[in-house]
Amino acid sequence: MNTLTCFIAIKLDLVGSRRLPNRGQTQEKLIAGVAQVNRMFTSSIAAEFIVTHGDEIQGLLFPTAYKASFAIVEYFIDFLLPIDVRFGIGYGALSTKLQEQAIGMDGPVWYNAQRAMVNAKKKRNTIELIGFGKPWDEIATALGNLLCRLRTGWTAQQRRVVNLQEDYSTQSEVAQILGISDAAVSKHLSAAGWRHYEEGREALLLLLAQSISGKSGGIHTPPDD
């Protein structure tokens, strides 16, 4: 396999969706979230994300968009709170023509994403990755679940501080935007375990990069969205 013929497929499902109140509003929110992701990650998307079967989402990324793959996971976790979500991520080739939207396609990349989703449901995991090879799948899945568990445990204020910290270079800028002290920003970041989260995410992305590089003989990092 090489990066010219392989892709990263992402599937998302809502946990306990049938028990959710106001399912109509939830579906409208899913549609809005998909539209936002398609705008935010345009250069990384091979086939646009769509809502399927009412409560499920799927999309296809270029193989070099491994950074975007987890950024999309983070986006949907934050956007859909307090609803719990589950992700199946697959890597592999297409056996059909690439479509503009992530529907009407077939091939190992989709089989792997579906297997990942099934495994995630069986193990009650938030995320499962399949197709990157051994031991990459197991390590990336374990690390991804740790990160997702940490992220879903943040308070609303911790989440605001962390997201701003990602966008600005200093804690002072974040403090000024929120109208709080630098010390308060530092306290929120520490309570959120932000340094450990950031280091863990970098390790996960390195694992994915090395896996894809090993399959293709080299990888080029895409521009950040």
Kindly describe this structure.
This protein has 225 residues and is of the alpha+beta class. It has a domain at 6-132: Nucleotide cyclase, GGDEF domain (Alpha-Beta Plaits). The protein has 8 helices and 5 strands; from the N terminus they run E-H-E-E-H-E-H-E-H-H-H-H-H. Strand 4 (85-93), helix 3 (108-123) and strand 5 form a beta-alpha-beta unit. The longest helix has 23 residues, at 194-216. It is globular, with a radius of gyration of 18 Å.
Which architecture of the domain at 6-132 does the CATH hierarchy give at level 2?
Answer: 2-Layer Sandwich
User: Stretches where pLDDT falls below 50 for ≥5 residues?
Assistant: 217-224
Specify the structural class: alpha+beta
H/I helix tally: 8
Span of the ends, CA to CA: 26 Å
CATH top level of the domain at 6-132? Alpha Beta
The largest β sheet comes out as: 5 strands, mixed
- Please write the string of helix (H) and strand (E) elements: EHEEHEHEHHHHH
Average pLDDT, rounded to a whole number, is 90
**Form type:** globular
Strand order of the largest sheet: 2-3-1-4-5
SS elements, strand count: 5
What Rg is obtained from the alpha carbons, in whole angstroms?
18 Å
Give the CATH H-level superfamily of the domain at 6-132. Nucleotide cyclase, GGDEF domain
Instruction: Give the DSSP E fraction (strand runs of 2 or more residues).
Output: 15-25%
Instruction: Indicate the CATH topology of the domain at 6-132.
Output: Alpha-Beta Plaits
Helical fraction equals: 40-55%
